[in-house]
């Protein structure tokens, strides 16, 4: 199993192209490129990738936008380890 | 900033610490302070606010408070990098959660974190901020909110 990390939206796309992960957890507030733009670009490369947004942005509009761009799920911070595991498990069932 | 908006931040910070279970957060009576000398502890995560509201929200904590939070997360890595990351993450969570009340036009910046006294201006000099002192597991911190009406 490989786990990679990125500290910006730009780096996330670079790492995605190198590793082609099955699942991505992505914050929205990131330097250089925000998560919404990053989701859009990654989905354009691979529409089948599963992206779980993990963000403190708790307004409904942001969640709806992320899902409309292709994210598979949205987990609002703060969350517990159990909630994260459950969300990832649900993602993989789809 | 009107006092009713302060309650939003009080609820958010209580919710943040309640996720860990155990000891409840103690939030002391908030007070207004002139911005000339920002109140900070060992690590401070700062979020710039723009859009419908303008200003700054920051979370400042002692190393011991951050250490307690890391312990509650089950995180054994007590590196400088983790303390800095956590200070930014708490500030991000507080500010981001505020969007539920303030709406999507409450734009938050990427957090920046500094240690000790700030090297540059973080708050508008001619304004005042609400200071919310907090205590958790006997360790102290502050949430500071400076938003224009």
CATH-level-2 architecture of chain A: 3-Layer(aba) Sandwich
Task: State the CATH class of chain A.
Answer: Alpha Beta
Mean of pLDDT of chain B: 92
By helix and strand content of chain B, what is the structural category?
alpha+beta
Report the sheet-strand fraction of chain A: 5-15%
**What is the CATH superfamily label of chain A?**
Response regulator
Runs of chain A with pLDDT <50, length 5+?
none
CATH third-level topology of chain B? Chemotaxis protein chec
Strand content of chain B: 25-35%
Give the CATH level 1 class of chain B: Alpha Beta
CATH architecture descriptor of chain B:
3-Layer(aba) Sandwich
How are the SSEs ordered, and which strands pair?
The complex is a heterodimer of chains A (94) and B (149).
Chain A: H1 9-19, E1 23-26, H2 35-45, E2 50-55, H3 60-69, E3 73-76, H4 81-93
Parallel strand pairs in A: 1-2, 2-3
Helix pairs in contact in A: 1-2
Chain B: H1 3-18, E1 26-27, E2 31-34, E3 43-51, E4 55-61, H2 63-73, H3 80-97, H4 99-102, E5 106-108, E6 112-115, E7 128-136, E8 139-147
Antiparallel strand pairs in B: 1-7, 2-7, 3-4, 3-5, 3-6, 4-8, 7-8
Helix pairs in contact in B: 1-3
Can you give a write-up of this model?
The complex is a heterodimer of chains A (94) and B (149). Chain A is of the alpha/beta class and 94 residues long. Chain A has one domain: Response regulator (Rossmann fold, 3-Layer(aba) Sandwich), CATH 3.40.50. Chain A is built from 4 helices and 3 strands, in the order H-E-H-E-H-E-H. A 3-stranded parallel beta sheet of chain A has the order 1-2-3, sandwiched between helices. In chain A, helix 2 links the parallel strand 1 and strand 2. In chain A, helix 1 packs parallel to helix 2. Chain A is globular and about 30 Å long. The mean pLDDT of chain A is 94. In chain B, 38% of the residues are buried. In chain B, helix 1 crosses helix 3. The mean pLDDT of chain B is 92. In chain B, strands 1, 2, 3, 4, 5, 6, 7 and 8 form an 8-stranded antiparallel beta sheet that branches. Chain B is α+β, with helices and mostly antiparallel strands and 149 residues long. The chains are: A alpha/beta (94), B alpha+beta (149). At the A-B interface, loops of A face helix 3 of B.
């Amino acid at each position: 199993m490989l786990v990679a990390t990125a500290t910006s939206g730009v780096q996330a796309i670079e790492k995605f192209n190198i590793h082609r992960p099955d699942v991505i957890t992505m914050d929205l507030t990131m330097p250089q490129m925000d998560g919404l733009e990053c989701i859009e670009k990654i989905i354009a490369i691979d529409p089948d990738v599963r992206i779980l947004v993990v963000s403190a942005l708790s307004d409904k509009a942001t969640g709806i936008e992320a899902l409309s761009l292709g994210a598979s799920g949205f987990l609002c911070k703060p969350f517990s380890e159990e909630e994260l595991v459950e969300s990832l498990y649900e993602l993989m069932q789809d | 900033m009107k006092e009713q908006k302060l309650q939003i931040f009080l609820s958010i910070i209580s919710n943040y610490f309640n996720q860990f279970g155990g000891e409840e957060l103690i939030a002391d009576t908030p007070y207004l302070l002139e911005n000339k000398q920002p109140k900070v502890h060992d690590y401070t995560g700062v979020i710039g606010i723009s859009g419908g509201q303008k200003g700054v929200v920051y979370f400042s904590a002692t190393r011991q408070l951050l250490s307690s939070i890391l312990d509650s997360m089950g995180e054994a890595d007590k590196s400088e990098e983790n303390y800095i990351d956590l200070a930014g993450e708490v500030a991000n969570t507080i500010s981001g959660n505020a969007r539920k009340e303030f709406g999507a036009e409450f734009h938050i910046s990427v957090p920046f974190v500094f240690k000790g006294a700030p090297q540059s201006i973080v708050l508008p000099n001619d304004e005042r901020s609400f200071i919310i002192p907090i205590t958790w597991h006997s360790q102290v911190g502050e949430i500071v909110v400076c938003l224009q009406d």
